[in-house]
Amino acid sequence: MINFNLDKYKKSLETDHIGKNIIYLKKVDSTNNFASNLIINKEESQKSLNGTVVLAETQEKGKGRLERVWISPEGGLWFTIILKTRLEEKNLPEVTLIAAYSIAAVLDTEYKIKAIIKWPNDIYYEKLKLGGILTEVEKINSDIYLIIGIGINANLDTEDLAPFGKKSVSIKTILGKDIERESFLSKILLDFERDYKYYSSTKDFKALFKKIERILNYD
Asked: DSSP characters for 38-59?
């Protein structure tokens, strides 16, 4: 399995700040847990963590919604975005949907994969799970940090998906080939940054929801 190429990723990244600082790990229990510990234990100003992305090749205890375990073998895209925010906990569902739409939008424009968002936090392709998001909050005094954990079955083979039964799919099994994870991640972060900045500054979710609801499934 080819490791994530940080140089290639940085050259393709066009965001203003999200993802400029990336922490790359070969193995971790959970990128969300790692991010949370960074926020809690960092002695210097946590402000420097804003926009940081934690990326791992594998997670031993990847987390899904409702404490479910997220199987995270090599070849997937397992990462967490840390954001110091002015939003409140009640805004978490909107941020999760913004992240989900960013993934779906890039899948469509780059790979012609028509994904849907399954409420509240999953990415599906033809009734098969392709990815998921777990957004959590860490509070340090009066500061609020969003911890946006994202898992995408990118370059996983059929045998990698076997533990999921016949309920999951990967980008590789859809396309019949590997994708460049570095470019995929950089494009997701760029799309997410644009919509997140708009929402966090305006609190106007209606405008964003108009495009999100076209691929949103509540079933």
From this structure: HHHH--S-GGGGTT-EEEEEEE
Domain extents for the chain? 6-217
The residue among 34, 176, 147 whose CA lies nearest residue 83 is 147
Query: Which positions ≥6 away from 61 have C-beta within 8 Å?
Result: 29, 30, 33, 69
Range name among 4-8, 51-55, 139-143, 189-193 with the lowest pLDDT average: 139-143
CA-closest candidate to residue 145, choices 68, 37, 12: 37
Q: Output the CATH code of domain 6-217.
A: 3.30.930.10
Length of the chain (residues): 219
pLDDT for 67:
47
How much is the CA Rg of the chain, to the nearest whole Å? 16
Per-residue pLDDT at 63: 53
Tens-digit pLDDT profile for residues 151-163? 999 999 998 888 8
